[in-house]
Amino acid sequence: MKFSNTHKTISFVLSFLVLFSTLSLTIEKHFCGDILIDVAIFSETEKCADDFFEIDEVATLKKGCCKDEIDVIEGLSEMTLKSFEDLDVLQQQVLIAYSYSYINLFEDLPNSFSPHKDYLPPILIKDIHRLDEVYLI
User: Fold this and answer.
1) In terms of pLDDT, which residue wins out, 40 or 59?
2) What does the radius of gyration of the chain's CA atoms come to, in whole angstroms?
3) Three-state SS at 6
4) What is the enclosing helix (H) or strand (E) of 37?
5) Contact 67, 31 (CB under 8 A)
6) Prediction pTM value
7) Spatial CB neighbours of 74, under 8 Å, sequence gap ≥ 6
8) Pairing of strands 25-32, 66-73
């Protein structure tokens, strides 16, 4: 049961790793002058509403000085699988040694003799603990 939950957890983590490594993001930034106004990840940025945009009641920036920056973070487009023959000789030897040591890490339990294997307990007619007023605390 323990290895089953561990196996499920590792599978879940690896599936998210594959998902996020292939995910592509587009980050849009809207600047008015040198000031960052809006950042959007999956949607478009909000543009300046009026022809003039006031900053601290001192400077006014015209709409023409606004600019947009788009940063694209590309994920993996193809998942390539390598075969054992594509690896170098040193990598093959390390992989074989690691697998051999990992397989031999877990040993089987010895077959132990159980003398009570064929013993059938008697059928209880009355609850002995209650009858003798013996309670476990």
Assistant:
1) 40
2) 34
3) helix
4) strand 35-40
5) yes
6) 0.40
7) 24
8) antiparallel
